[in-house]
Structure formats: C-alpha cells, structure tokens
Amino acid sequence: MTLLQLKYFVVTCSAGSISKASETLFVTQPTISTSIIMLENEFGVSLFKRINKRLVLTKEGEYFLQYAKELLEKADDLANNMAILSKSVKKIRIGVPPMIGVFLFPKIFLSYKEINPTIEFEMIESGSLKIVNRIENKEIDIGITIIDNNIMENYNYVKLLDTELCLALSKNHRLVNNQKVTTKQLENEPLILMNEGSFQNILIKEIFKKDKVNMNVLLNTSQLAIIKKYIYLNQGVAFLMKPLIDDDADLVGLPFNQGINLEIGLVWHKKTVLFQELKDFISYIQIKKYK
After folding, report:
1. In this structure, are strands 237-241 and 54-57 parallel, antiparallel, or unpaired?
2. Taking Cα atoms as reference points, which of 241, 221, 265, 290 lies closest to residue 99?
3. Which of 33, 103, 223, 236 could hold 230 in an S-S bridge, CB 3.0 to 4.6 Å?
C-alpha cells in the first residue's frame, strides 16, 4: 500500500468513476484501475461494486475510505510541518486585538527585541475571535487574546495579565461622578462598540440582552483613535480595558456594576509545530510578568 494508491482510491470515490478521476488526476484510467486492483489484492477484499455502470463502495470500501482519508491528511500535515522545521524561520506571525495592541504588545515586543534584536514579528490586528480562527487556519502562529473555556480546550496558553472592561467617558459626562454603571443607565446612551469578531462586541451585547435593556449603538469600529475622539467630544461612550483608560488623563473609567473581568493570554494551537524562534519567544513569555 502506498500513499499514491490511497490518493487514487480517494479521488475515485469523490469523482464517482475512474474516468472522472483520471481527468482530475491527469493520469490514465488503466493506471488508476491497476492501483485499485493492487489494493484489493493486498487486503483480499472488493472495494467497489458496479451498479448500473456506476462504482459503488462496498462495506469494506467504506471502511477503507475513512482511514485512507485520515492517512492522507496526516501525510500532508507531516509534509507541511517538516517543511516548516527545515527552514530558518525568523519571523513570528502574531495576532493582536486592537485594544491589546495599544497597551500590551509594545511592552512585549520592545522588551524581547532587547535580548533578541534579530527576531522579526509580523503583527496581524484582528478581533479576539478572528485571531483564534486564524491560528486554526495556520494564517498566524500565535495570538494574544481573551482566555475562555473554548481556548483552554484546544489551545496551549500563557497567562499575561488580568484586567477589567470599564465604561470610558469624558470628564463632562453626566455619569462621571458615579461609582459604577448599569445597563439601565446606558439604555439611551450612544455606545461605540468594537467591530464584529471581537470578544468585547459579543460580551457587551449578551450583558444588555440578559438585562433586557435596549442598546443605542452609535458606531462599530476597531479604531481606538476614533473611539476616543467621540468620547472626548462627549458624543458617545465605550467599554475599554482599564489600562487604556488609566493611561489617558482625558478619560474617566467606571466599572460595570457586575464587574467584567478578563484574562489575557498568549495562545497557540496544541497541534502547532513550534519552530525554534517561536519556542524561544514562548519560553520568554512564560517567565516574564506584564502589568
């Protein structure tokens, strides 16, 4: 049994006939037929039967197809991973949400560059949920995101810090003297939310829905400069991470009455192949504390 024989068999199953498989694979029909016959002879079973001139899988063929697909997928993964390991990779592709990209990633990047000046990062800005999808699709190597139960199940992670999502408003806002804020107080307040695909967007909507309070969404944007501009002008409010508010003297932050606590971490898929530069960076993060 060879991988090529498995490929011919799987493509034939998908195409529904040897002639169509021949067109897909750009090989002759006798080559495919011989390959399938060799598999049948090797295992002493019939993989196909002909019904009305069509190829139909036998029970043995259905069983064989399941494992043939898995073996081909694993072979492809092995080839891709070995290609990664064989290269001298210097660039680390890291996904970073907009809010985290402003106050946390620069600290990590600059401190690591001090001890490893040759390393190169490619920062891809995305919402937390899209970062997870991009890691899954191997578009990025690692990501900084919000940690939840779904992350813990399929990903390795290193905790970076705990923070809180607070309401950011201007010093002239009517609620500025409050100790905390409730959804009811924000029922008619123009709210600025992060774009779809962000953890913040989904979380805030769920809280308002649970409290049965309508939202007055003024704008969806991931541009922090735009969000802050609206807040400075007292034209809207937004939920931002506490460090972003604390670092801006023109903003006031109010905690939510229920408290919106977040855990931020560096994540990578459990199946990710770690090239040496990535291993070194993760090891650095594991012993470093960020606040």
Report:
1. unpaired
2. 241
3. 236
If you compute the radius of gyration of the chain from its CA atoms, what whole number of angstroms results? 27
Q: Report the alpha-carbon distance of residue 75 to residue 73 in Å, rounded.
A: 5
Helix (H) or strand (E) holding 163: strand 155-170
Rounded Cα distance between 202 and 196, Å, is 8
Encode pLDDT of 34-55 as tens digits. 998 998 999 998 998 888 778 8
In CATH terms, the fold of domain 91-160+264-287 is D-Maltodextrin-Binding Protein; domain 2 (3.40.190)
CB 264 within 8 A of CB 145: yes
- The span from the CA of 194 to the CA of 208, in Å, is 15
Query: What is the distance between the alpha carbons of residues 148 and 131, in angstroms, rounded to a whole number?
Result: 14
User: What's the pTM value of the predicted model, to 2 decimals?
Assistant: 0.65
- Paired residues of 267 in beta bridges: 143, 157
Q: Is the pLDDT of residue 267 over 60?
A: yes
State the average pLDDT over residues 178-191. 93
Backbone CA torsion sign across 142, 103, 200, 288: positive
Rounded CA separation 57/35 (Å):
16
User: Which residues of the chain form CATH 3.40.190.290?
Assistant: 162-262
The topology under which CATH files domain 3-86 is Arc Repressor Mutant, subunit A (1.10.10)
pLDDT reported for residue 144? 92
User: Where does CATH 1.10.10.10 sit in the chain?
Assistant: 3-86
**CATH 3.40.190.10 domain residues, the chain:** 91-160+264-287
The answer on pLDDT for 291 being more than 90 is no
User: Of 2.60.120.380, 3.40.190.290, 3.40.50.300, 3.30.1490.20, which CATH number belongs to 162-262?
Assistant: 3.40.190.290
Q: Output the pLDDT for position 205.
A: 92
pLDDT at site 50: 82
